[in-house]
Amino acid sequence: MSYNKGMISKFDGYNYAVRLQRGEKLSEAMEQFFAANDLEGASVTAVGGAEQLQLGFYDLDAKEYLWKTFPNLYEITSLLGTIALGEDGKLMFHLHGTFADREYQVVGGHVKDFVVGATCELFVHRTYQPLQRKHDDETGLNLLDLDDERA
């Protein structure tokens, strides 16, 4: 199945392999992919290349992210996370990653977004029930809501 800007995916009955093309913005491509496939929860892993990388570190005391942009080209050495529905019903991506530059120096953190370098290969393992996030006052974060009383 092809999408805008050349995203390609393949479903094996359980999981999706997704290939993003150079120049695609991760957030836009993933929102489009999840909507097109009616997914309401998944775990994601990926490798590839990224530029215009936006990473964050969560300051627990201040209850806010400290954001930094890395404009150069990086290898995605690891990207993993979860996708769930927020309290407003919109998808929330919780991704962390490590990225290496041409000097083999590594940066990492909470991934806000990036533009795909040469390619980005994602493995999406869908959940068979929706995953939900709920705001937690203690941390200030939207945590996975795994309350058994809902079931």
Mean pLDDT: 93
Computed structural class: mainly beta
**Major β-sheet profile:** 7 strands, antiparallel
What letter string, H or E per element, gives the SSE order? EEHEEEEEEE
According to DSSP, the number of beta strands is: 9
Poorly predicted ranges: none
Number of helices: 1
User: What is the percentage of strand-forming residues?
Assistant: over 45%
CATH class: Alpha Beta
Name the helicity range.
under 10%
The whole-angstrom Rg is: 16 Å
Count of structural domains? 1
Plain-language structure description:
The chain has one helix at 26-36; strands spanning 8-11, 15-21, 42-59, 64-70, 74-85, 91-100, 106-126, 133-135, 142-144. With 151 residues, the chain is mainly beta. It has one domain: Hypothetical protein, similar to alpha- acetolactate decarboxylase, domain 2 (60s Ribosomal Protein L30, Chain: A, 2-Layer Sandwich), CATH 3.30.1330. Strands 1, 2, 3, 4, 5, 6 and 7 form a 7-stranded antiparallel beta sheet that branches. It has a two-stranded antiparallel sheet with strand order 8-9. A hairpin with a 5-residue loop joins strand 5 (74-85) and strand 6 (91-100). The longest helix is centred in the N-terminal third of the chain and has 11 residues, at 26-36. The protein starts with 7 loop residues before the first strand and ends in a 7-residue tail after the last strand.
